[in-house]
Write a structure and sequence with these properties.
The complex is a heterodimer of chains A (about 450) and B (about 450).
Chain A: H1 6-11, H2 31-40, H3 48-52, H4 59-67, H5 71-81, H6 85-91, H7 98-101, H8 113-126, E1 141-145, H9 149-160, E2 164-169, H10 177-180, H11 189-201, E3 205-208, H12 218-224, E4 227-230, E5 249-250, H13 251-260, E6 270-274, H14 278-289, E7 294-299, H15 310-318, E8 322-325, E9 327-335, E10 338-352, E11 358-371, E12 374-377, H16 386-389, E13 394-395, E14 398-399, E15 412-414, H17 427-447
Helix pairs in contact in A: 2-4, 4-5, 4-8, 5-8, 6-8, 9-11, 9-17, 13-14
Chain B: E1 6-8, E2 11-13, E3 17-19, H1 28-37, E4 41-48, E5 58-63, E6 66-73, H2 82-95, E7 100-106, H3 111-123, E8 128-132, H4 146-149, H5 152-165, E9 170-173, H6 182-191, E10 195-198, E11 202-204, E12 207-208, E13 215-216, E14 226-229, H7 234-246, H8 248-253, E15 257-260, H9 266-274, E16 277-282, H10 284-289, H11 294-308, H12 313-316, E17 335-340, H13 350-358, E18 363-366, E19 372-373, H14 385-390, E20 394-397, H15 407-411, E21 418-423, H16 432-438, H17 440-444, H18 446-456
Classes of the chains: A alpha/beta (about 450), B alpha/beta (about 450).
Amino acid sequence: MNRVSLEALLTDPASSAAPGGLRELLPPLTQHEALTESARCLMCYDAPCTHACPTHIDIPRFIKKISTGNLLGSARTILTANLLGATCARVCPVQELCEGACVLGSEHKPIAIGRLQRYAMDHIYGKRIAIFQPAKPTGKKVAVVGAGPAGLTCAGELAKLGHTVTLYEKRDLGGGLSTYGIIVLREPVEVALAEVQMVQRLGVRLETGKEVGVNIDAADLQKDFDAVFVSVGLGNTPQLGIPGEEYILDGLQYIEGSKHQPSQLRVGRNVIVIGAGNTAIDCATIARRLGAERVTMVYRRTENEMTAYPHEYDFVKHEGVTFWFLAQPIKVHHENGLVHALECVRISLAEPDASGRPSPKPIPGSTMLLPADQIVKAIGQHKPTLASLLNLQTESGFIQVDEEFETSCPGIFAGGDCIRARGSASTVMAVEDGKLAARSIHQRLVQNG
Amino acid sequence: MADLSINFAGIRSPNPFWLASAPPANSGAQVHRAFEAGWGGAVWKTIGAPVLNVSNRYGAWHHGSQKMLAINNVELISDRPLEINLREIAEVKRAWPDRAVLVSAMVESKPETWHDIIHRIQDTGADGIELNYGCPHGMSERGMGSAVGQVPEYCEQITRWVMEVAKIPVIVKLTPNISDIVMPARAAVAAGANAISLINTLNSIIGVDLDTLEISPNIGGRGGHGGYAGPAVKPIALNMLAALGRDSVVHGSGLPISGMGGITTWRDAAEFLLLGASSLQVCTAVMHYGFRIIEDLCDGLSNWMDEKGFPSIGDVVSKSLYRVSDFKDFDLSFKAVARIDQEKCIRCDLCYVACNDTAHQCIDLIDAQGNVVQPRSYSERDNGKAEAISTRPKVVVREDDCVGCRLCYNVCPVDNCIQMVELPPDQPSVTWDEISRTQRPVTESWSEMEHYRQKHNIHIH
């Protein structure tokens, strides 16, 4: 897909090459809006928004800087705590984090922290201002495996400190889920790629098309580098294990298609999305926006248990998406290679399972047929496979790390979704992992002389 | 419903609100529209000596998203020909017999020019004259305006010339650009003026443009001091108004005072009345929002007077004046401490940082277990709104250490969240004046002061 320049896109979202319905949902704040909104910030002391932010950006500080017209200082404040401030400004579930903790939220409207952050970020990316310069070279070499948010952050932070960083990425583009898995409505691809370039400008060498175990030898990594950071994210969508599953589309691939080849993405008229997490919501949204007349989300539990955030649930309902709760797919009905229905069994919720949520129990003899001409599944991702290749210990399938983000193998650190055994995976958590891991790696490299 | 009408030194007006002598009262058409909107009177923009104006004329001070907390100007007196002004004044007065039409005047400091302008104003049928001794820019360089107002002898002399021929009430308008506002007011009293008005604008430079490094507003690469007015000057005006009310000569003369300086809402108006003004003049608020603001000025004031049981403006005037006092007469034993309503508190911690950094370090952060904790005592791995909200400590005043400075009360963004609670005094009522009269050494020696404190159990925090 052709891309417009970032400058043009940030000034005028309508210049995006993405189909109209997929363009970034929220327009940039105007200068007047940014000044008015920033003036509303009370500038809390030891602010709860900063506490709630996983990267602990000094939010009152960056907002006050916007109000005084010090956009450069504002951007520096943000990026010092969170190198991927432009992505996080767009994709963070701010309702659950900074804005959710805003003291004005109890009686008034919380400050639009995410949009103000985006305003400061757009200023420097739109003008191609470099905030950081790399320090004097230390001579230490670090390999980062996986150029998603955790890897980019770790690589960028280490490069700032003067280390020589090689960033391996198996895909053609860096950015991880920001580039491939976040719908354009929330973040244009150009923004994710601009952050990759920013990290490259810090001196990080990005090698794409490189995958450990395929064209990089795991043993070489440990031999050639002083430290390794593994940030490979998670794998493909798991199997449901039902007949006709080969006719079900993978949710992440569905989203990737909408981002990179929207003209070739076939969207059905009557689409079923299986699952009720963030990715499922995004799949349903793009299906609606690319012309599906009817989109139904099928979930075996209810709105009380689903992993999508309340604001996402509200959003997608406004998009015209309907929900079929307490239904578990058991078979895809198809004919001549075309899907025509999803057979489900009704569910009743029983005592909590390992996830702490009520366990779904099929009600015998309660099957039903939901018509559909396209079925997409977004039911989580496989655990990382790299762990076994590197002989790393795991915890419920995720790579196990200690407080310093070091794995069971000394010198190999890990962060991002691939270690997220507890808590929900998110971009901002991955950024924080990358930042803290870089700190640990730096201390180790400095200690080792 | 409260009676808002006034009789100010013989000038009658259906409500106490007059347009101040300024751009809003520059022409007959404007004053007509103001009267249609409900204004009780207007003081015509100063007429007198010939002038030429410049652009840009007005600067403004904004804060946050609040525009025009103050305006400053280098506009001179009316640049419209005298004849046109006089004709329009006469027309307006004929059309609006029930409204107060006053004319502000400023001419060269000669008896014959003052006599001439007073005669010509009186020929229009106007209700009163205001002598502009306040304009701080331009006119003062020519020996008029504040050049007169800053020298009480000049005020008195010129006012005497005016009073020689005046047949309608004469108001002397004072400049605030002076050390003691009482002096020119006494001069006005001595010269036999019928009333006083204050304040005119303050000397000011509104700012410097950080792009061009020019003075703002820019006048061909130059800029200078201009007259400062608007909401930001109200406290200065209230103080000067009260100073006149407390002066035995000025107050004893019985001259009414027309108050102005930042009146924007009926609340401001009520405060001016309470401190002794019996007519009110408005400029900046009208320049910001137009003549229509008169509706709520009257409506709000009337409703407040009804609620308070004040039947007429006269019942409000000076009601709070007796409370204005010198420090030496304050009760040193009066005790107030801050108390935070935990139900209303939104945990912004602005009171905490203000008290801790700049006041008396008597607000603590208390966690759920009741322990005093330090700011940012959370782990860097903690995040999320639930965590941030649920672990946020309470802000609690240590009342024993609170000196009652009231800083926390002032910075708190929530209405009625912090109350200054009056506590029973620890010692009998006493003032500094009483101590200096009865125990003079205490006021002159730190060791005597120490004894005094110990005796009366006064702790310094």
